[in-house]
Amino acid sequence: MLKFFFALLLLPVIAQAVDYQEGDLVFHKSTSNQGPALQVLTNSPWTHVGLIVKNGDEFWVAEASSTVKFTRLEQFIARGKNGHFIIKRLSPEIGVIGAAEKTRIRASLANYFGKEYDIWFQWSNDTIYCSELVWKVYQEAMGIELSTPERFRDYRLDTTEARQMIRSRYVNQGREFNVDELVVSPVAVLNSNVLIEVDRNVR
Predict the structure, then answer these.
(1) If DSSP states are collapsed to H, E and C, what string results for 146-174?
(2) Dist. CA 9–CA 99, nearest whole Å
(3) Fewest beta carbons less than 10 Å away: which of 134, 161, 169, 171?
(4) Nearest-angstrom CA–CA distance, 138 and 151
(5) Rounded to whole angstroms, how far apart are CA atoms 89 and 25?
């Protein structure tokens, strides 16, 4: 946990105009190499998600990218396609993220900080991908499941993009592709019935 708080102290100070809340989730349309395949696989342009945290009065995003790390909120948004984003918050009908919940969120994040990105999308804590990170943090910190985990077989595996990803990441590396692997996608979290939308920039 200490390395998590130490990392926050090292973050530079920036100005923010919008008063988001710690625990909000921010989604964008990834421009990474795997973005197009994920769009087809999950049938959605929203392919990346992070969790907003605060350092003083400044907002940052805890995300699983190359590793689990912190990114300035503006940088996270700007990295997405056309600067489009959606920010969602836990519905007040479900619960409120107060001081105790924030402490538990940070404690959960600390367990993942620095871990490698999971290019195989496995349901383990050894490595981790973006939507898996926010899903597990919410579940561990507050006992809230943002969505019901799906399985690979629920996705569009018959597409060219999916077959290419499976071949390059699994077959070519001698790894088994398990169609029954539990998985949670960014769009499944985006469509969660326990979240409400608080901001967006989508044209």
Answers:
(1) CCCCEEHHHCCCCCHHHHHHHHHHCHHHC
(2) 19
(3) 171
(4) 20
(5) 6
User: pLDDT at residue 10 above 50?
Assistant: no
The stretch 8-23 carries a mean pLDDT of 58
CA neighbours within 13 Å on the CB side: how many for 82?
Answer: 9
Q: How many residues does the chain have?
A: 203
- For residue 50, the one-letter residue type is G
Contacts of 59 (CB under 8 A, 6+ apart): 16, 20, 52, 53, 72, 73
Give 3's pLDDT tier (boundaries 50, 70, 90).
low
For residue 188, CA distances in Å to 9, 68, 69, 92, 155 come to 33, 20, 22, 20, 11
Tell me the average pLDDT across 69-85: 96
φ/ψ (deg, to 5) at 12: -70, 155
Buried b / exposed e along 87-109 (16+ C-beta atoms within 10 A): bbbbeeeeeebeeebbebbbebb
The helix (run of H) or strand (run of E) holding residue 99 is helix 99-112
Determine the Cα–Cα distance for residues 28 and 46; give it in Å rounded to an integer.
6
Contact 185, 149 (CB under 8 A): no
| Location of structure tokens 């367990």 | 111
Rounded-to-integer distance, Cα 60 and Cα 24, Å: 11
